[in-house]
Amino acid sequence: MNKEAVLAVLERAAGDIGFFGQLAQDYTMALEDYDLTWQERVALATGDVGWIESHIGRKLNEGMIMTKVLIPLLSREGW
């Protein structure tokens, strides 16, 4: 588990709309430069808040990560 990489992806997606779009459309390509497990990749691609919080050891209930990244990923259609 690489919680630093997971947080780096979330922070980048919150501040870089182009990266967020890529994450939403093609997470495989968006995450290719990050050292992540397949579980971390899927959790980031789907906005799985519960999994992410349980594996990074803290809540993400405030700030830009929740409102700009995870909630939009959870609410989109297309799966």
In short:
By secondary structure, this protein is an all-alpha fold. It has helices at residues 3-15, 17-25, 27-30, 38-46, 49-56, 64-75.
What descriptive keywords fit this protein?
single chain, about 80 residues, mainly alpha, 6 helices
Would you kindly provide a written description of the structure presented here, covering whatever features stand out?
By secondary structure, the protein is an all-alpha fold. The protein has helices at 3-15, 17-25, 27-30, 38-46, 49-56, 64-75. Helix 1 (3-15) packs across helix 2. The longest helix is centred in the N-terminal third of the chain and has 13 residues, at 3-15. It is globular and about 25 Å long. The protein starts with a helix and ends with a helix. The model has no long low-confidence stretch (mean pLDDT 83).
Main sheet summary = none
Strand coverage percent: under 5%
What is the subunit organization of this protein?
Answer: single chain
Which structural class fits the helix and strand makeup?
mainly alpha
Count up the helices.
6
From the alpha carbons, calculate the radius of gyration and give it in angstroms.
11 Å
Note the run of SSEs as H and E.
HHHHHH
Shape by Cα distribution: globular
Q: Distance between termini? A: 25 Å
Overall domain count: 1
How many DSSP E strands?
Answer: 0
Average pLDDT confidence is 83
- Uncertain segments: none
Strand and helix map with partners:
Layout (H helix, E strand, L loop, with lengths): L2 H13 L1 H9 L1 H4 L7 H9 L2 H8 L7 H12 L4
Helix pairs in contact: 1-2, 1-6
